[in-house]
Design a protein that fits this description.
Elements lengths: L16 H75 L1
Length: 92
């Protein structure tokens, strides 16, 4: 019984083993450079996020402190005003 199969014609020349190795090396180099660039981008994204989080925390703390100081100043001003008014009322 005859088997049916494909016979390779080899019409196109194959690259040499050295050329195949060189192409594989170049492909690995491109993949490594791409990986390094992606890693650098990821590291920068993490650093930016961390920096933004720190800045936001500092801003929140500063706003809270400012609000507390404003409230304290307002309380003291009201106390002084009430004290002054009571002094004026006693004089009158």
């Amino acid at each position: 019984m005859a088997q049916i199969g494909f016979k390779k014609m080899n019409w196109l020349p194959r690259p040499s083993v050295w050329k195949e190795a060189e192409l594989a090396r170049l492909k690995r180099k491109e993949m490594m450079e791409d990986f390094q660039q992606r890693s650098l981008n990821l590291a920068n994204a993490f650093a930016n996020t961390f920096s933004f989080q720190l800045n936001s925390s500092v801003d929140n703390v500063a706003k809270t402190a400012s609000d507390r100081m404003a409230a304290e100043v307002e309380t003291k001003a009201t106390e002084m005003q009430n004290k002054l008014m009571s002094t004026i009322d006693k004089m009158a």
